[in-house]
Write a structure and sequence with these properties.
hpI Integrase, Chain A, three-stranded antiparallel sheet, 13 helices, alpha+beta, DNA polymerase, domain 1, 436 residues, elongated
């Protein structure tokens, strides 16, 4: 107990609970409360909360935070509590066109006001793709996204594949971002005609996508005539494919080896399930074909089965939940590194579909049976398979010779891809060869 001393004030003790000896709450003993975090601002253009910090503005000794909307690409400054009526330029918000790594992250179909650009005379010229007639009003980004979403859902109900729906959706978005009005066919024609970086095949797909969109929305239009040009595919050597597979990671190399031995599409490979792999019979069954193809079963090597056994079984799919974009980005990075290490720029021309072309070309050159190649690729129309009969051209005419004296040796050579050349009656040996 503390005694009161003459000339001194009465002292009180504070316990850990925050109460002093007199039983009153002592607020001075508690730590000061942290100020609440300031909420993120809302985009004044579209009302979205997905905003990024985009640098600072220094005006008359004052620092103002700038923000960039991820949804609509609008760039604005944070409002301050002080009175800015004396300088109205501080309260101006101007559209900002900014390109990020991905052109689909931020809508960049905006123009910069001429009054706010000093010394940049090139920005005052309106590009013919984004020029609009007098009195015309362009639809908002939300309206266009809603119409494209309804279009995709209608295609889904009509039974189109997800890859086709995705391709049509991307073409419509590209047309919109290039300045086309989806409700005006002439605007779409003009934008497609002005695209110098698009080849005829890309323009053909854009026309097909908008043709379907106009038909579902009752928009009359006469589609322009663009004939897709089919280029001769690049057929690499087998040793180049093997060197690329060896230079990739565990999962990517297994995926590439699967494409090489089966000739399946990349979408079919990513949807492959563990139940479709028969480790006892050395076979892989394709039960989820693309482009209305046929289901098929293909024999594979022990090397591929060993590579598949090294993968972790996280779910029922062989390659887990990896998407097409992720697989492509990983493959492009590893392909670039392998081409640099091996000093072979031809490797950079290899894509996922190159393995399918290579497999079809090799099988037709080995068997000269177009029906066999048709069944291997899962085609329903033989005219599609006939494309591979025109690309049997190799850059190397060197062969690997082998001789077999027994049936076991012949079976092993045939499984390895060797073809019979002749039978040597003197030495009683069968002569086989395989292209390098």
């Amino acid at each position: 107990m503390v005694e009161e001393t003459a000339g001194l004030p009465h002292k009180t003790h504070t316990c850990r609970s925050g109460l002093n000896t007199e039983g009153k709450l002592d607020l001075s003993s508690r730590p000061a409360a942290q100020p609440p975090k300031q909420p993120l601002p809302i985009c004044p253009e579209c009302g979205s909360k997905k905003v990024w910090r985009d640098g600072l503005r220094y005006l008359d000794g004052d620092v103002i935070q700038r923000w960039l909307c991820r949804n609509c690409g609008y760039r604005f400054s944070e409002k301050k509590s002080q009175d800015l009526s004396s300088n109205p330029l501080k309260t101006l918000k101007k559209p900002f066109k900014k390109l990020l790594n991905s052109s689909y992250n931020i809508s960049n179909g905006r123009q910069v006001c001429e009054a706010l650009t000093r010394g940049t005379k090139n920005l005052t010229e309106v590009h013919p793709q984004t020029k609009w007639a007098a009195g015309a009003t362009r639809q908002t980004n939300a309206d266009v996204k809603g119409r494209i979403l309804e279009f995709c859902w209608q295609l889904k109900k009509d039974g189109l594949s997800e890859k086709t729906i995705e391709s049509y959706s991307e073409r419509l978005k590209a047309l919109w971002k290039k300045g086309a009005s989806l409700s005006e066919p002439e605007s779409v024609k003009e934008v497609i005609a002005l695209q110098k970086n698009w080849n005829k095949s890309t323009k053909y797909i854009a026309v097909q996508a908008y043709n379907k969109f106009a038909k579902l929305n009752g928009i009359p239009w006469e589609p322009p005539k663009y004939k897709p040009s089919r280029k001769k595919p690049f057929i690499p050597l087998e040793k180049e494919l093997d060197s690329l597979i060896a230079g990739c990671g565990k999962k990517t190399s297994t995926l590439l080896q699967l494409l090489k031995e089966t000739g399946m599409r990349i979408g079919e490979a990513l949807r492959l399930e563990w139940i479709d792999v028969d480790f006892e019979r050395n076979a892989v069954t394709i039960n989820h074909p693309e482009k209305n193809g046929e289901s098929r079963q293909i024999r594979v090597s022990n090397k591929l089965l060993a590579m598949l056994n090294r993968l972790k079984r996280k779910n029922n799919k062989v390659f887990g939940g990896i998407t097409m974009n992720t697989a492509q980005s990983n493959f492009h990075v590893q392909r670039k590194n392998a081409a640099f290490k091996l000093q072979n720029p031809r490797l950079r021309q290899i894509h996922f579909h190159t393995f399918r072309h290579w497999k079809a070309t090799i099988e037709y050159h080995r068997t000269k049976d177009i029906l066999h190649v048709m069944q291997l690729l899962g085609h329903r129309d033989i005219n599609t398979t006939l494309i591979y009969t025109q690309i049997v051209s190799f850059e190397s005419n060197e062969f690997i010779p082998r001789r077999a004296k027994s049936r076991e040796e012949e079976d092993a050579l045939i499984k390895a891809g060797f073809e019979l050349v002749r039978y040597d009656h003197v030495n009683r040996e069968a002569v086989y060869r395989k292209r390098k």
